[in-house]
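cron nightly-structures :: item 1 of 1
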Amino acid sequence: MVRFFCPNCWGEVDEGARSCPHCGVDIEAFWGERDYVEHLILSLRHPEPHTPIRAAWILGHLRDERAVAPLARLLQEAPDVYIARAAAEALGGIGTPAALAFLRTMRDNPATIVREAVEKALSQHNSMFAAGAGAARKADVS
């Protein structure tokens, strides 16, 4: 059986419900006022664990800076290590200075799987930076 959730309060709603019986939000209007990235950011709080993982993966590939703060919050607060790992990977994918700075603060995360994702994301960016710096030095010598 398929379960449907209100995008505002995440209460369970019937299929095709126009408004949420829990919080009263107009569901169609709620979704209609937001773009794709905003939908994904909202999905980071979805109660079904596969949804935040998928949303984080997509956000990491889209590299939209609007996702940095919500992903950082998710990484800090996720009750599931796999969701936290997905948030770390997505922040690495976005790769902005703010995302990388936050990842550096998570190097001591108590979960090994999360620490490994953080280190992998940071090392990928360090490798790209080193390769770019080497290419710049070669260009200066020429």
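cron nightly-structures :: done
Residues 7 and 82 are 22 Å apart (CA to CA).
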